[in-house]
Amino acid sequence: MKFNFILTLVASAILFSCAGNPTDRNGLSLEKRKKVFMELRLAEKKAGREALKSFPKPGTDGGGGMEFRKQLRDLQVLYWQEVLDSNDVATNLGDSIFTEGIKGKWAQEMRQQEKKMRSTKSKSDNRAKGNKEKRKDRKKR
Predict the structure, then answer these.
(1) Residues of the domain holding 68
(2) How many structural domains comprise the chain?
(3) If the chain, 141 residues long, is cut into consecutive pieces of 10 residues, what is the mean pLDDT of each piece?
(4) What angle is formed at CA 39 by the lines to CA 35 and CA 44, rounded to 5 degrees?
């Protein structure tokens, strides 16, 4: 009994040590999947904006709700395919990457990083602005 348990542990250790990088899925690194996810989100938003331009009142009578949904779906498929092609990602992986990004809250993570970067940039801009003003004051004296 103990021998079978030990054998199973050894086999599992060997299997997991050969598995490679645990963040890789379907041959794509975590960073690549996050990049593709963000581009897919932008593609969805772009499709929504364009469909709304064509049918600005889809929820009203005669507003073209059915046509809006069809155009929205067609544009989403088109733009997703462009993103997947430009990143050399198989078409069938788009949904799984998007789902993984939603579950992993990657969009929120990216927004927080962007917010930090903006606040860091504004602080450095303010410092530069302050230094510029100090130089002007020195010249006036």
Answers:
(1) 28-121
(2) 1
(3) 57 51 80 94 94 77 80 95 95 92 90 84 68 65 57
(4) 150
